[in-house]
Amino acid sequence: MSALESLTARLRDALPPDALITDPVRLRTYECDGLTVHRATPGVVVLPDSAEQVAAVVGLCAEHGVPFVARGSGTGLSGGALPRTDGVLIVTSRMRRILEVDVPGRRAVVEPGVTNLAITEAVRDQGLYYAPDPSSQQICSIGGNVAENSGGAHCLKYGFTVNHVLAVEIVTPDGEIVELSEQDAGYDLLGAFIGSEGTLGIATKITVRLSRAPEAVTTLLAAFTGIEAGGRAVSAVIAAGVVPAAIEMMDALAIEAAEAAVRCEYPEGAGAVLVVELDGPKAAVDREFAEVERLCRESGAFEIRIAASAEERAAIWKGRKSAFAAVGRISPAYIVQDGVVPRTALPGVLAGIDRLQEEYGIRVANVFHAGDGNLHPLVLFDDAVPGEEERAEAVSGLILDLCIEHGGSITGEHGVGVDKSRYMPRMFSADDLDAMQLVRCAFDPRGLSNPGKVFPTPRLCGEVPGVRRGVHPLVEAGLAEQF
Amino acid sequence: MGTRAVEDAGRDERAGKALAATGVTVRPAVPGDAVGRVRPRWVVLPETAGEIAAVMRVSAEHDLAVVPAGGGTKLHWGAPPSRCDILLDTCCLNAVIEHVAGDLVVRAQAGLTLEALREALAAAGQELALDVPVPGTTVGGLVATALAGPRRFRYGTARDLLIGITVVLPDGTVARSGGKVVKNVAGYDVGKLFTGSYGTLGVVVDATFRLHPLPADRAWVTAGFEPPGPLGDADRAAGLGAALAAVSGSQAEPSAVELDWPDPDGPCVMAVLLEGTAADTRAAAVRGLLGPDSDLRPTPPPWWGRLPEPPAAQKGEAPESRGREDEVLLELRITPPRVPGVLAEVRRAAGDLGVRAAVRGAAASGVLHIALHAGTDAGTVPGTDAGTDAGTDAGTDRGTDGGTDAGAAARFVARLRAEAEDGGGRLLVVAAPEEVARRAGRWGRVGALTLMRRIKERFDPDGRMSPGRSVGGT
Amino acid sequence: MDPELIKDCVHCGFCLTTCPTYVLWGEEMDSPRGRIHLMGQHVGGTPMTGEMAGHFDACLGCMACVTACPSGVRYDRLIEETRAVVEREHERTPDERAVRAMVFALFPYRRRLRAMRLPMAMSKRLQPFLERVNPSLGAMAELAPPAARPVRLPPLVRARRRARARVGLLTGCVQGEFFPQVNAATARVLALEGCDVVIPPRQGCCGALSVHSGRPEEARRFARRTIAAFERAGVDAVVVNAAGCGSSMKEYADLLAADPAWRERAERLRTLDLAEFLVRLGPVAERHPLPVSVAYHDACHLAHAQGIRAEPRELLRGVPGLELREIAESAICCGSAGTYNLFRPEPARELGDRKAERVLATGADLLVSANPGCTMQIAAAVRRAGKGEIRVAHTAEVLDASLRGLDPGALGRAPRTGRAKARAV
Ligand SMILES: Cc1cc2nc3c(=O)[nH]c(=O)nc-3n(C[C@H](O)[C@H](O)[C@H](O)COP(=O)(O)OP(=O)(O)OC[C@H]3O[C@@H](n4cnc5c(N)ncnc54)[C@H](O)[C@@H]3O)c2cc1C
Ligand SMILES: Cc1cc2nc3c(=O)[nH]c(=O)nc-3n(C[C@H](O)[C@H](O)[C@H](O)COP(=O)(O)OP(=O)(O)OC[C@H]3O[C@@H](n4cnc5c(N)ncnc54)[C@H](O)[C@@H]3O)c2cc1C
Ligand code: SF4
Ligand code: SF4
User: Fold this and answer.
1) Known EC number(s) (chain C) (predicted)?
2) How many A from CA of C145 to the centre of ligand 3?
3) Predicted ipTM of the assembly
4) N-term to C-term CA, chain B
């Protein structure tokens, strides 16, 4: 009997019957997350209902030396929730209770499978909301947000998941339930866990900060003839000392896609549009808004629309929010890239992307969080044309190289997952990666929690960095593979 | 001289030679270099990451314990190290490495003082939105102690603004994490681990922070409140509580809501900072919430942004000076709505135990500092004999340090800690004489103690970095 | 199952939270994304296993996923094709077969339904027994509305003011038999707003039930008959007040695509939902005040299949004194879904309970929706919850009451008995 088989027998005893999936047809529906190029049918899938069940499953995995992978809603875009054929996929989609809402204390305690938007919906009547707003907020789980340290259009002003999570209860890779709290003295383990992509354990309970909904929100859409003028407007706004809630930019191709998908009716002939949103005290917003409008005009905006109502605001955002999925309407296939550059390097990087488009004959639609330099180039291709997919992948990779060259990062919010682990050595030295590996070894010495993600070819935890000293005992025992 | 001592001397000599061979500036330590009473043998003054790495390699080879120091303003905080051979002074690493105003990002060396950093940034109309700490605080010390001032309410603490870090690990490895872009999720955030590490994981070489534009305008609103408590006086707590809730939830978007309560029997003052566009209009709105007796002022109250001064032994006397070795400084972390209730307990416990306390801090964030004068002689402190548990061993518990009543202070900590932890909060002993810390325990409940120990073991398997300074003996 | 349509799904998961079965069970296989993946597996050569068929059968066909999908995936087309494949390739258990045979022999035929009214009313008392025999029979008995007084509509109702349009009215099988007062109200409202209303007497089932259950041949037969009936009537548009019927009639051209002549006839037939039609026409008749609070329920076949959400709300808001309240989780199906509550009674009941809870939470006087199935389903759930009889009405009845200046207290009470009940909601 393989380790997985004997583990499965034990899982049958530990879980209710409908919480364990072994039918091959059903298992295959879990073969990928939002990044469908990487697929693997999980060995088994479990759907636990409580932290105790998660702990029981993880404990059994540890006992049997079987790897496990956490999955929330499966919307990740870096293959972070890619299952292991020889392992267990632990899905949190049934752990979706909002356990506590503390309105005066402005916090909520939720299970990991609760969707990001569900938190806001639960407290909206009290004038509160949960600030980080990834475009996928209606479906992505808060557990997945914690794992990816997700951000959203509004994180320019309000920060990311890590700035809004106050405590996380986790099941450690040994199967123990431990709380990481911002209130604890000592190392900021909470901060280290957030963004660890499921490699340090599984979050089973999350305490989030609730923010007060702003008094005033104003949204403006500015149309420019080209992306350079839009970029100038962004710089001008930042230089003026205004911190908008969001500044988003789309180029002509992205506008075309959004138009096809949702008929957002952005100004005719726009080579780039900028969506700027300001929020906060009414007095401040009014004054700053006039300033932003002026700066946009001075930078060459040929049309400016100001949303006067919630509906009009939704209409402006509709095009931007649908952009990812919308490119499906103008191209049979595409790759969503996620890279970051210092904002001042944006013009250089965009010019570089233009060169790549020409050189490779591949179209790239640009949608980005202009305020913090987070690019989401959408690399379009037709998989029916031989060779086009390969060229698209080359372009997509070269864009990341451009980001690194300009002092940026290979991912701003989608995570490294399985997809970008090979780029990690381009961004970090072996020593940098070794230091990160120390954290991994402290949490998960046997490397059972989401192995093969984030890090390219990790050293084994018993190994001393630097000079390799002989064969590792785990390798000798056949428990691990040395790369 | 016994053989043991001879061996030690031999080892010292070899280690000293090895240190000298690194080419790093080294001087023998003097008594003033003591870290919480532990006197190092050498003080090293490295100028680059490479030099720090060289020192750390020598430390590894000769098993020398290293304590990094910035401005030395808070070296007696945390537990004293169990041993210390080298004091690694970062004062020579004091440059702004990169400040790109257009990106609102700065990378600065660990030994740079925040005053110098502030000056450099102000020239470009920007700031690091962590409050001006005590003079001499360095970038490295700021990260290592993870402290924050009033504006944590709006901007968070060092961890929230830190976007990249370079460190030297105990084995001499130079490692980097994060980067110089605000948004970045590539790899683990090792920088987060170093916040609050008190120098126990490695040496911070440089740190990169997210910046904010300097606010155009600032205004403060202050208002006085009746002291919270004692028992049964729910109204007073309610008045403060309601004001706190109204202000911190107000649409005026305050950057900070501070409370100052120098004497538990006297009134306390709330001060609210509004900054940025239309600060005056928003301040007026806050005044509307705090009532006609509140004041609008263009400058902060004198106590703004400082830790509470330890109260004098006698009521009415001037507070004692900061930074004494025997100071007792506590940090309370609770959810904001519990602030009035817990303050009432501070007053009760202080009364019962004959302890004089001063409270100050970021009330809207639920983080308050409490400085104690633990009472010198029972006769002069009102109420020492009032509470039975205070009375019974007041005499026997008298500590050895300068007459501080360690027993009363420890019991005060225990009582307040129980109250705090009961509602999911914490009470930390930031600074205290050994005796108080030993009796009360420094850190209180730590959910993930085992994991913290394992982190320490991985980063510093030989226990050479500031051994014993942080949580759980790490 | 068209592989090209399957490929349109980018696996983003945006459809998951609006899917009622995902809401219930939290499993990938019972989500739209998972079902599309299963379709892909089948197209890729995996045989139709019992497990696979079970996940397709569990789909309510509510089309909430179509509304939610930013990539424009045609799940409606996909599931229709899939159901046909399931019927062809999957061997059902004898029990399942018996229930299905009975439903398909009964529901699409008015005369048979009429004959059933009395036995169904009687079977109410037998419900606990039927429940034990087969939950589907129990569900059927539980849902049965009280037998209504038959209303005979004339073949033509003339406009009550200068005629602005000539429209046909689809009476529907279930609507016509169990809720004849809704058709009467619809005809009156249309006439008061200036329409000549033609009601062809020999119209049969529109074919909706058959389409949604993987019986395309039967569906085409019904469709052709319906088209012919309205062609003879010579109308500008066919107005439909039952959401399920409206959505299938709008798809006639797709259904009959294989036959160019019929497809063209289908395309010429202009089908509009009542609310859609009235909003486009614009109000002219005077609205009398109706002081009543209304919880409006989005019927899936109106909100998702036809994308009609704003229009009914606009009409209701246009009634002076009427207070409109939103029901939480409005996008999620009530579990009725045509015949679903007959074939899959357990999840249908759970969804019904969930919906009833949220409807009751609004505290409104009256529940309004545009689909008889939903109304029956939610009313049954409210009864199960021990909350008595909830007052329900069709949008048309509310407008009718306002146009005619009726007492709102009469709305949503069984007209037959006129028994006054305490506020049920
Ligand atoms: C259309 C679209 C738009 C998007 N827009 C944004 C955006 O604007 N900003 C953004 O940041 N992201 C965005 N994303 C990416 C994605 O939605 C986020 O990464 C999200 O946080 C993933 O959540 P999930 O529940 O789907 O996690 P999954 O995809 O299921 O898992 C993601 C990772 O988290 C781990 N994980 C899941 N649950 C847990 C847990 N309880 N404990 C520990 N680890 C866990 C998994 O192992 C995996 O590594 C978008 C995705 C799509 C499809
Ligand atoms: C009266 C008072 C008021 C204060 N108010 C504020 C305030 O408003 N806001 C605020 O943010 N802080 C405040 N502080 C805290 C003070 O700013 C911190 O203690 C300070 O950041 C410590 O910095 P330092 O450079 O003096 O470090 P030191 O005192 O030299 O060292 C403190 C700790 O950090 C470690 N350390 C120092 N440098 C490094 C390095 N390069 N790498 C690794 N570890 C290192 C040391 O080993 C030691 O454990 C206040 C302190 C006082 C006394
Ligand atoms: S039609 Fe309804 S039940 Fe079926 S998959 Fe779509 S949302 Fe789910
Ligand atoms: S929303 Fe559309 S594209 Fe996304 S998973 Fe659902 S069906 Fe597929």
Assistant:
1) 1.1.99.14
2) 26
3) 0.91
4) 34
